[in-house]
Specification:
Layout (H helix, E strand, L loop, with lengths): L2 E5 L5 H11 L7 H10 L7 E7 L2 E10 L8 E8 L8 H15 L4 E7 L2 H9 L3 E12 L14 E5 L8 H12 L12 H9 L10 E5 L2 E10 L4 E9 L8 H15 L4 E7 L3 H10 L2 E12 L3
Parallel strand pairs: 4-5, 10-11
Antiparallel strand pairs: 1-2, 2-3, 3-4, 5-12, 6-11, 6-12, 7-8, 8-9, 9-10
Helix pairs in contact: 1-2
């Protein structure tokens, strides 16, 4: 077998999307999102999408780059996936080695990587000197059969969609920036500039503005639930949050309920969401909706030698 690792080419988009879906079937992944992520990454992220090719067939990929907005310098990411039918043949090791070499050349001190909670993946990470960090819980909801609660609006609350903010999405930017600051994570991010948020979040090809719900109180955005879809029946909750001034009123649950109703009406068959293992409020909300565990991921961390 001839195995090579090289940089992504536009013609690889379909193969990389297929490989990513085979390794992580709960993700919303399309050729369009793969190509867009590679083409739209800010220069400061030093993003590279590496591809493993075995005998001319794409069998895996690794997305790597630096957390340029982290308040701790020298942090980077390297997330690797290999098709299940190609594991054990060296593709994963070759991808990770290439990513670490790239990051070491940038002066990176610490590499963070998401790893599935299954024996092969965990053993692979730990053999390479990665140590286990925080967890993320992926959950699944069958939209065709889920008994979604009725939509009962409290007084003074209005439900809109992201599409209603097409002329001026800045209120959604402000909400997203504030809520993201309170998300538990190993990396503390600075608020992105508005123009960057527009380019990376608002213009993301998987963002479904018609299914993204926004709870408005007295004309102000109070809570929201982001929907990403892939045109194949999958729905992913990109982010659900409530601004600090409106918390404790059930508005995040209301926004997510509205989004799920919209998703089912639009023909989505299955909904997925991921929550940090310490995010008890959102874990409780998703359990209330009937989400069931689908997968656990661990963030593994390695210190690169100086």
């Amino acid at each position: 077998m001839t195995l090579i690792v090289r940089d992504f080419r536009a013609a690889d988009a379909e193969a990389v999307a297929e490989a990513r879906r085979s390794a992580f079937p709960y993700l919303v992944t399309t050729p369009e999102t793969v190509a867009w992520e590679a083409a739209s990454a800010p220069p400061g992220r030093r993003y590279r999408l590496l591809v493993a090719e075995a005998d001319g067939r794409v069998v895996g990929a690794c997305e790597t780059g630096v957390f340029r907005d982290s308040d701790q310098p020298g942090q980077a990411f390297a997330n690797t996936m290999v098709r299940p039918d190609a594991q054990g043949a060296g593709a994963g090791s070759a991808l990770v080695s290439a990513a670490e070499e790239h990051l070491a050349g940038l002066g990176v001190a610490q590499v963070l990587s998401w790893t599935l909670d299954e024996p092969h993946s965990v053993a692979f990470a730990e053999r390479r000197g990665y140590r286990r960090g925080r967890s993320s819980r992926v959950q699944r909801l069958d939209l065709a059969t889920a008994p979604l609660p009725s939509l009962d609006l409290p007084g003074g609350v209005e439900l809109r969609t992201a599409a209603d903010f097409a002329d001026d999405p800045r209120p959604l930017y402000e909400a997203d920036a504030e809520c993201s600051e309170d998300e538990p994570d190993d990396v503390a991010f600075a608020r992105p500039p508005y123009a960057e948020w527009l380019a990376l979040a608002w213009e993301h090809p998987a963002l479904d503005r018609e299914l993204t719900s926004v709870a408005v109180v007295d004309g102000a955005v109070a809570a929201y639930s982001v929907a990403h879809t892939d045109g194949r029946g999958r729905y992913w909750s990109g982010m659900t949050g409530t601004l600090r001034a409106f918390r404790g009123r059930g508005l995040a649950k209301l926004a997510k309920n509205d989004s799920l109703h919209r998703a089912r009406a639009a023909g989505c068959a299955v909904a997925f969401t991921g929550n940090d293992g310490e995010n008890q409020p959102m874990l409780a909300i998703n359990k209330w909706f009937g989400y069931e565990p689908a997968q656990t991921e661990w963030r593994y961390v390695r210190e690169l030698a100086a």
